[in-house]
Design goal:
The complex is a heterodimer. By secondary structure, chain A is mostly beta strands. Chain A contains no helices and twelve strands. Classes of the chains: A mainly beta, B mainly beta.
């Protein structure tokens, strides 16, 4: 079983600045994956970034990167050069045995 | 592009009605999922299916059932809708048991009055 905790219900950032969203998880599985999904006001859930737990190298996707600390069970998302279109609910997600466990989400506001 | 569609964006039903939520994916995915999304609770798994006619309970299956007669279609059924089932329902699919991206539908906002 997995648990995923997002301790920041809301965050805000100025356009072009950098913001970091926090996430901790707990799992008894040895093989698992971690994801960040975003859900904009359109409600469409979109994959932002994916990290395989067996990989030590942190995943990056353009302006999005993660800081994966396996021993600490921490998986934070950094958004660089924030844009207005980044405003959304962000979910930290753990996955194993093809099932996903979602955190409660962090609502990100981007101020112009 | 993978496309996951859901039959309705918004649905209003009365207490006690039988409700069908339909989900269709067009990429021949084996695994399909139904989630419920409530404010402050994230997404919670109701049921999933790893093959035609195969299903497994998720974390909150009570009050729901599912049907998967064809690979591309996964239906969520509320046998007797109740007000506490008012929620956003999201369908998703993935290609196989490896851990790839789950593709989500646009969601159905169900209100039970």
């Amino acid at each position: 079983a997995q648990t995923v905790t997002q301790s920041q219900p809301e965050m805000s950032v100025q356009e072009a600045e950098t913001v970091t969203l926090s996430c901790t998880y707990d799992t008894s599985e040895s093989d698992y994956y971690l994801f960040w999904y975003k859900q904009p006001p359109s409600r469409q859930m979109i994959l932002v970034i994916r990290q395989e737990a067996y990989k030590q190298q942190n995943a990056t996707e353009n302006r999005f990167s993660v800081n994966f600390q396996k021993a600490a069970k921490s998986f934070s998302l950094k958004i660089s050069d924030s844009q207005l279109g980044d405003a959304a609910m962000y979910f930290c997600v753990g996955g194993s045995n093809y099932k996903l466990t979602f955190g409660k989400g962090t609502l990100l506001t981007v101020n112009p | 592009d993978v496309k996951v569609t859901q039959s309705s964006r918004y649905l209003v039903k009365r207490t006690g009605e039988k409700v069908f939520l339909e989900c269709v994916q067009d990429m021949d995915h084996e695994n399909m999922f139904w989630y419920r999304q409530d404010p402050g609770l994230g997404l919670r798994l109701i049921y999933f299916s790893y093959d035609v006619k195969m299903k497994e309970k998720g974390d909150i299956p009570e009050g729901y059932s599912v049907s998967r007669e064809k690979k591309e279609r996964f239906s969520l059924i509320l046998e007797s809708a109740s007000t506490n089932q008012t929620s956003m329902y999201l369908c998703a699919s993935i290609e196989d048991r490896g851990f790839y991206e789950q593709y989500f539908g646009p969601g159905t906002r169900l209100t039970v009055t």
